[in-house]
Amino acid sequence: MSGEEDGGMVAAMERLIIEGGRSLEGSVEVHGAKNAALPLLAGTVLSAGDCVFDGVPQLVDVAVMLEILEQLGAQVRREGGTLTIAGGNVDRGEVSEGLVRRMRSSIFLMGPLLARLGRVVLSYPGGCAIGPRPIDLHLAGLAAMGARIHEDHGYIHARADRLVGAAIHLDFPSVGATENLMMAASLAHGTTWIRNAAREPELVDLANFLNAMGARVQGAGSDCVRVEGVRELGGVRHRPIPDRIEAGTLMAAAAITGGEVCLYRVRPEHLTAVTSKLREAGAAVEEAGDGLRLRGPDRPRATNLRTLPYPGFPTDLQPQMVALLSLAEGTSLVTENIFENRFGHVEELRRMGAQLATEGRGLTVQGVERLSGARVVATDLRSGAALVLAGLAAQGRTVVEGVDHVDRGYQALEETLARLGARIRRERLG
Ligand code: UD1
């Protein structure tokens, strides 16, 4: 559950105003990945030395994680594009409830804090807009490594003098649980095997980071990760991988407006499921080194889509694809296999004229010829992105409220889109 789309506490005081109907043209650079940055930052708690990062995206969730690290005793310094975290002094094993509520990814701190300090108290992260998001796999894995865990009045208390290596089989390849356990195992006594592990590229990035600090992690990116525990981890300099979800969002934006966009600093090999789906939808996509060029079709073609763990199609791009397929010729079937309730964009897209029908985890998208601008509300991060995309293609003006959700995961999305020629601006209310 450690992910991203929780209901934030920030008041929705800003909105995006979009004048639709303009093709996106030009080139932009993709930022560092949010889903890499959050576990990497949590992982600094494991290090006795300084962790220096280049290219960490400036996002609300990142700011909250930095605030938590400071609360735990770490020193955080940002100079230009460089972020330094001195975790040597981390001595508090407790994160305040307010901060956990503001960011569900604080669960990432559980494994590292337990491994480093032998104790942790964290308030229980509740449900969120896209489903209940339990943390049972995180807790069961830590318990298998010897942690004594109990819940009391909404708080999780965990203790372990020293975690011990264990053979863990995950019921589901959870990204957050694999990352949490990998970090905990790095300082455990003995060897840990995580089977049915998640294979997401952000997790491989985390393994590379840990290994550069002196950890012994093997097999990250396969379904079996082996971690040989070490006594201490040192300092490191690291740049998070490019954000494949931001890249996919911008590709879908180019496709939905029938534009032509070149993205730099991407890793095309992380985007093959997305590229192949966009081609099926009629886009022309070419790879060029660390760049991807996408030319959108006159009108998208319908195609079916199923979200799956990596290397399958990412759930974090499902809403944006639904926006695109809303305008396709023909009927598409979309199946959401990762989260129980990830159709928050459906009702809002209907306001814009999309023909959508949900049934359980399935969504039927009957393509229409045009969408029309409307006032819509983002209920979570990626549904917000989908509404922005629909607004770019719609006739007339779209107003997207709930922009605080979008800001959790996109660094100034409207600036990036405006650079590509979109007519989009942010309006501050009150
Ligand atoms: C991460 C991503 C998020 C993405 C998701 C799936 C980060 C910060 N966030 O979230 O953007 O949407 O992967 O690709 O990297 N589950 C359990 N028990 C657990 C843990 C998870 O049942 O203990 C279930 C969840 O409810 C969900 C599924 O497993 O249905 C996938 O969740 P998981 O892979 O853990 O996602 P996150 O790590 O939270």
Describe this structure as you would to a colleague.
This protein has 14 helices and 24 strands. The chain is of the alpha/beta class and 430 residues long. It has two domains: 14-31 and 242-428, Alpha-beta prism (UDP-n-acetylglucosamine1-carboxyvinyl-transferase, Chain), CATH 3.65.10; 34-238, Enolpyruvate transferase domain (UDP-n-acetylglucosamine1-carboxyvinyl-transferase, Chain, Alpha-beta prism), CATH 3.65.10.10. It has a four-stranded mixed beta sheet with strand order 22-23-1-24, with helices on one face. A hairpin with a 2-residue loop joins strand 8 (148-152) and strand 9 (155-159). The longest helix has 13 residues, at 244-256. 54% of the residues are buried. Mean pLDDT is 93; it is low at 5-12. Uridine-diphosphate-N-acetylglucosamine (UD1) binds next to helix 1, helix 5 and helix 6.
Task: Give structural attributes.
430 residues; alpha/beta; UDP-n-acetylglucosamine1-carboxyvinyl-transferase, Chain; 2 domains; 4-stranded mixed β-sheet; 14 helices; elongated; binds uridine-diphosphate-N-acetylglucosamine
Number of helices: 14
The CATH architecture of the largest domain: Alpha-beta prism
Structural domain tally: 2
Reported for the largest beta sheet, the result is:
4 strands, mixed
User: What is the overall pLDDT average?
Assistant: 93
Shape: elongated
Bound molecules: uridine-diphosphate-N-acetylglucosamine
Distance between the termini: 34 Å
Number of strands: 24
